[in-house]
Design a protein that fits this description.
- This protein has 419 residues and is of the alpha/beta class.
- It folds into three domains: 28-143, no CATH class; 147-332, Rossmann fold (3-Layer(aba) Sandwich), CATH 3.40.50.300; 338-417.
- Helix content is 44%, strand content 11%.
- The chain has 16 helices and eleven strands.
- The strands form four sheets. The protein has a five-stranded parallel beta sheet.
- Strand 8 (294-296) and strand 9 form a beta hairpin.
């Protein structure tokens, strides 16, 4: 036995086996890294056990209050706390941190279930119990999406982003470096909030959608242009008859991944001077520390949204509060050059044709693609798909200029747009 730490050989640490072993008081000499890992696991088990005891005590008090209330006889049963926590947090301690992330704590869900048991409004009670049942079945963990797990597909997606959106190259490179960084540790993919600003029509929203697809993450768009309250992001307070969950809770807790993409469109057009500031929730959501303990108002539940990816767009960044701008990595997006526009048009037009899956349909001719270069990526995609429909309707397996609308072929517009 090594009663003192300085008696252990260099690089080793004495580790007590603990009460679960018959040789009570026996110590082993383990390498420092292994001893630290075992100690962390022991502390985590102790934390979970203590949380179970705390939750059981809290629910015992809730149950006592419920039994003494007038509606006690109609209250739904409270689950066995220890068994509930064990089932709900199954796999949390042994997870691969780069692939799975806990978004809910078992004791927090138990607290909510205990609160629901005391509700007098049976319609509210039924609706919220159904929701908590979904959360219980989903468990604490969510997948962490990372394109680095599929390097060949990620390389192809990066190539498409750079060719289809050449004027977003700085953003693409920034995200690519973050993905590369994630492969050198056991931490999940973390991408700081991005703010893309520039003139209208540059394809910021379209790029955000393509970036989310490249990352393999679901995307949810929220426009600030007509936002009037904070409720769309973090839910409506329960005292309202139309109380609903917020977008963040829906995607993170009810979704399949811990790091979905949220597109905050028209950030600079959020209404000012209203009683409820629609930008207010972003201050906490964009900070990793506070984002790990955000609260959805509808269910009154706290969850972890720290891995969520935010992409904001605006035309005039000066209209965005400095307190928010400081939380973003900002990128000024400039119009593509003539050469970039021609290259992007060919890539986007070909991709739009392939997406339709028309068997045997020929790729668009480069000369035809050049006629589309003055359009945004979204407009090119829509125009080409409409044109393919016209060609197929005419019995052809290729595009001609006749398939394109007349306003797209306006030479004066093309000459004034390309430079």
């Amino acid at each position: 036995m090594f009663s003192r730490l300085d008696e252990a050989p260099a690089g080793f640490h004495p580790f007590a086996l603990g009460r679960s072993y018959p040789e009570k008081g026996v110590e082993l000499l383990l390498p420092l890294a292994l001893a630290d890992e075992l100690r962390q696991k022991r502390e985590e088990r102790a934390r979970i056990a203590q949380a179970a005891l705390d939750a059981e005590e809290n629910l015992r008090r809730e149950d006592l209050r419920a039994r003494t209330s007038p509606s006690a006889s109609a209250a739904p049963p409270v689950p066995n706390q220890v068994a509930f926590l064990k089932a709900f947090e199954r796999g949390v301690a042994r997870r691969r941190r780069d692939r799975h992330h806990p978004v809910l704590r078992g004791e927090e869900l138990l607290r909510v279930i205990g609160r629901i048991a005391t509700l007098r409004d049976k319609d509210y009670q039924k609706r919220e119990l159904e929701l908590t049942k979904k959360l219980e079945l989903a468990g604490a963990l969510r997948d962490v999406t990372n394109p680095a797990f599929r390097p060949t597909k990620w390389a192809s997606a990066l190539e498409y982003l750079r060719e289809a959106h050449p004027h977003f190259a700085e953003v693409t490179d920034f995200v690519a470096r973050r993905v590369t960084l994630s492969t050198h540790g056991r931490q999940p993919l973390k991408i700081p909030p991005l703010h893309l600003w520039g003139d209208p029509g540059l394809g910021k929203t379209h790029y955000a959608n393509d970036l989310a697809q490249a990352l393999g993450a679901p995307i949810r768009r929220h426009s600030m242009e007509n936002a009037q309250t904070t409720s769309l992001l973090l839910g409506t307070e329960r005292h309202w008859s139309t109380a609903t969950q917020g977008l963040i809770f829906e995607q993170v807790c009810l979704g399949r991944v811990a790091n979905p993409v949220f597109l905050i469109d028209e950030l600079d057009k959020a209404p000012r001077g209203s009683q409820y500031d629609p930008l207010a929730p972003l201050h906490s959501l964009l900070e990793p520390v506070t984002a790990s303990r955000v609260r959805d108002a509808s269910l009154d539940i706290e969850f972890d949204a720290s891995l969520a990816i935010y992409i904001a767009t605006s035309n005039d960044p000066d209209r965005v509060p400095d307190s928010l701008r400081s939380r973003f990595r900002e990128f000024h997006v400039l119009p593509p050059t003539g050469a970039q526009a021609l290259q992007a048009a060919r890539v986007v037009a070909t991709a739009a044709t392939n997406q339709l899956g028309v068997c045997g349909f020929a790729a668009p001719d480069p000369a035809l693609c050049n006629k589309l270069a003055h359009l945004s990526a979204r407009e090119i995609s829509q125009t080409v798909q409409d044109a393919v429909a016209r060609a197929v309707d005419a019995g052809r397996q290729h595009l001609t200029l006749a398939d394109l609308p007349a306003d797209v072929l306006d030479e004066s517009v093309i000459r004034s747009t390309l430079h």
